[in-house]
Amino acid sequence: MSHSIEEAIADLKMGKVIIVCDDENRENEGDFIAVAEYASAETINFMATVGRGLICVPIEQSIAKKLDLHPMVTNNTDSHQTAFTVSIDYKETTTGISAFERFLTVEKMLDDKTQASDFNRPGHIFPLIAKDGGVLERSGHTEAAVDLAKLAEASPVGIICEIMKENGEMARVAELEKVAEKYDLKMITIEQLISYKQSQLLLN
User: Fold this and answer.
1) Would the annotation count 40 as a binding residue?
2) Which residues bind Mg(2+) 2 (predicted)?
């Protein structure tokens, strides 16, 4: 099962979640991806209950700079160099972990008036800094989320969550297709997104 990039973007613009798979030679995993600007607290709750993975917020470098979000570690030894920053909560949250409070933190990351001092550190939202070149520079879910947000004509901020099976193992393509069918979700691959962006460059 694979939908077109255009179909995925249309759903993202409606605030829906999509599934994005990476290469079987990379992580061979699928993530739920949403565009933060069009998402809601229900999006976070869906990801937490159905995805079961870590909910992260991919952002463009410029937003990380504005909010003074520095790398979580100075020496990144992650096999895929995932660019985690220090985790955050918006200062007016209580525990920060409910779907509603996590979404409030995301909303405030989108707000132009928000300053770095408006967030407590550490917290329950995990920002990830995308490479400037997007999936053409790094074929990860972080870059895919930011690229898709831009294609959906929104702020370059996404919400992502890895998808696990009920038994705690990672869901692979066969299981991901069942999830997509059950919840009527579009499903694309990062490889598709790379091809789409390359064709856009040729057109421009």
Assistant:
1) no
2) 27, 141
The arithmetic mean of pLDDT across residues 159-168, rounded, is 96
Q: Is 27 annotated as a binding residue?
A: yes
Nearest to 188 by CA among 151, 137, 133: 151
Do the annotations mark residue 70 as ligand-binding? no
Q: Taking the C-alpha atoms of 99, 110, 188 and 190 in order, what is their torsion angle to the nearest 10 degrees?
A: -120
Answer yes or no: is 102 a known binding residue. no
| Strand 52-59 to 187-189 pairing | unpaired
Residue 128 has pLDDT above 70, yes or no: yes
Question: Is 89 known as a binding-site position?
Answer: no
pLDDT in tens, 1-14: 679 999 999 999 99
Prediction pTM value: 0.95
For residue 37, the model assigns a pLDDT of: 98
Instruction: Count how many Cα atoms sit within 13 Å of the Cα of residue 29 in the half-sphere of its side chain.
Output: 18
Domains of the chain plus CATH, in order, are 5-203 (3.90.870.10)
- 168 known member of a binding site: no
Residue 138, annotated as binding a ligand:
yes
Annotated binding-site residue? 141? yes
